[in-house]
Design goal:
CATH superfamily: Ribonuclease H-like superfamily/Ribonuclease H
Keywords: Endonuclease, Hydrolase, Nuclease
CATH architecture: 2-Layer Sandwich
Largest sheet: 3 strands, antiparallel
InterPro entries: RNaseH_sf, Tc1-like_DDE_dom
GO molecular function: endonuclease activity; nucleic acid binding
Order of helices and strands: EEEHEEHHHH
Number of domains: 1
Protein name: DDE superfamily endonuclease
Number of helices: 5
Domain Tc1-like transposase DDE: 2-137
Structural class: alpha+beta
CATH class: Alpha Beta
Length: 170
């Protein structure tokens, strides 16, 4: 499995949009420094996605996420490949019995297919949107991630890169 985190905030992603003449489209914009953080772990073999929304990225939240992933797969033994952020390398993390961590090389987001899931989520669910509150943003993020979790075929099409799949076959 590959793991990553991303922040989602009340900072709108305003993009070009069109409308029939003579109507001019109105796109709202907002810059507010309020964020929630999405954690995700994905199996490239079958597109199974585990997500969790937490208020921060730190050792405590990472521990909550690791425990959640382990509890969702109690009979599986998993290796989580992750980017080696400070909270990933903390000695205070207590790994569940069925999880091991594998650090990817530093500064190499191109090796982590979860990065493409974040791009998909941003592009499909968050462009040209303004949220009245952090709760509204979190509710929208939760629904978008739940829909993504249910669509394993779509997730697998995004994350099952040939070099990863071929490495399992050898």
């Amino acid at each position: 499995m590959f793991q990553d985190e991303a922040h989602f905030g009340r900072v709108s992603d305003t993009r070009q949009c069109g409308s029939p003449q003579p109507i001019q489209p109105l796109c709202q914009a907002m810059v507010t420094q309020e964020y929630v953080y999405a954690y995700a772990a994905v199996s490239v073999a079958d597109g199974e996605l585990d997500t969790l929304i937490l208020p921060q990225v730190n050792c405590h939240c990472m521990q909550l996420f690791l425990d959640e992933v382990a509890s969702r797969h109690p009979n599986d033994w998993s290796i989580l490949a992750l980017d080696g952020a400070g909270w990933h390398r903390s000695h205070t993390l207590k790994l569940p019995h069925n999880l091991r961590l594998l650090m990817l090389p530093p500064y190499s987001p191109e090796l982590n297919p979860v990065e493409n899931l974040w791009n998909e989520l941003q592009e499909k669910s968050f462009h040209n949107r303004v949220f009245d509150s952090l709760d509204a943003l979190e509710n929208h993020l939760e629904a978008a991630m739940r829909d993504m979790e249910k669509d394993r075929e779509c997730v697998q099409s995004i994350v099952a890169w040939p070099w990863i799949i071929n490495s399992f076959m050898k």
